[in-house]
Amino acid sequence: MKRVFQKLHAVFLNGYDAQLGEKRSSRMGEKDGFPVSDKEESIGQNRIKIDLLIHDLKVPLAVIEAGITSLLNRQEKYGPLTEKQTKVLQRALRNTKVTQNLVADALELGRSRKGIMNLSDVRLSSCLGEALIELFDLNNSTLSEQIKACRSLDRLKETLRTEGLILEIDDRLWSAQLPLDEGKIKQIVRNLLSNALKYRKREVSLRAYKDQGNLFVCIKDDGEGIPAKYHKKIFDCYFQMDPSETCPVRGHGLGLAGVMVLLEDMGGKMTLSSDEGQGAEFIVKIPLLRV
After folding, report:
1. How many helices and strands, by DSSP H and E, does the chain display?
2. Strand, helix or coil at 163?
3. How many domains does the chain have?
4. Do residues 191 and 259 lie in contact, with contact meaning Cβ atoms separated by under 8 Å?
5. What average pLDDT score do residues 229-248 get?
6. Which phi and psi angles does 60 have, rounded to 5°?
7. Do 89 and 190 belong together in one domain?
């Protein structure tokens, strides 16, 4: 399992580098008169190799998941487990599922780079609900199970509020079916919420609304905020704020860079509203293109 995770980490980072590097190389070629087509061909071949490696991770991860699930659910065949053994296996299973999501995310970035969108009429409750479950499945499995058990929006809001997460969305939009690329939307929401929860003081808000043919998703934390001088730089790959600043170091790194790639390829935008000591709000605008 350790080797699988190490391999995933390496190809996942290379995937980001290849994608962001391709855009930089393309711009340089147009600007400096280099043979862009040759560069694009070389980068494209490298991208295929990376995508193949990432895709090949799906099989061993599926085998690991099936094996752990069998040990947990078929104790009459494989032998009884102690309470500690059960907890260890459950944690391993959660991490395996998270890694499977990372593989899917990496492949989604590859498809996004090619301009591929998987639009379908998606119920927003399903899309956002699954994003929340996947987010908490790793570090708060109890909350994840509670979210799964929620049968109404009011119940979900109450459950999340006890954990300092304020969900602001009306019932009509929550139950609406919208033309979205569900995989990309879930990846964007997970990344932004993960950052907000990491840097909050007390609470985070997730607000969604529709306006003029666009879906807006706003994620806000009440943390120390981001100084204005960093507002553009934090979207760069691997960027981290100066640890000598008064506010905590924000290591957004690859997450925000990946979110920008996904949004740009959907025709969307993301803006940041923040200042030092005043929290941070990321506002995502996603065009609702008809299927």
Report:
1. 11, 7
2. coil
3. 2
4. yes
5. 62
6. -60, -30
7. no
pTM for the structure as a whole: 0.69
Domain of 235 in residue numbering reads as 119-291
**pLDDT score recorded for residue 28:** 40
Domain co-membership, 126 together with 234: yes
Residue 244 pLDDT greater than 70, yes or no: no
Q: 137 and 109: one domain?
A: no
Cβ contact 235:257 at 8 Å: yes
Decide: helix, strand or coil at residue 204. strand
Nearest Cα neighbor of 205 from 286, 263, 282, 126 is 282
Residues 137 and 99 in one domain: no
Q: CA–CA separation, 252 vs 274, rounded Å?
A: 15
What residue ranges in the chain does DSSP mark as E strands? 119-123, 165-168, 177-181, 204-211, 214-221, 269-274, 280-287
Could you tell me the pLDDT band of residue 5, with boundaries at 50, 70 and 90? very low
Residues ≥6 apart with Cβ < 8 Å to 210:
173, 176, 178, 216, 288
Which residues, listed in sequence order, are joined to residue 119 by a DSSP beta bridge? Answer: 181
Q: Are residues 47 and 148 in the same domain?
A: no
3-state helix, strand, coil in the chain (%, to 5): 60, 15, 25
Token pair, residue 113, equals: 């780079």
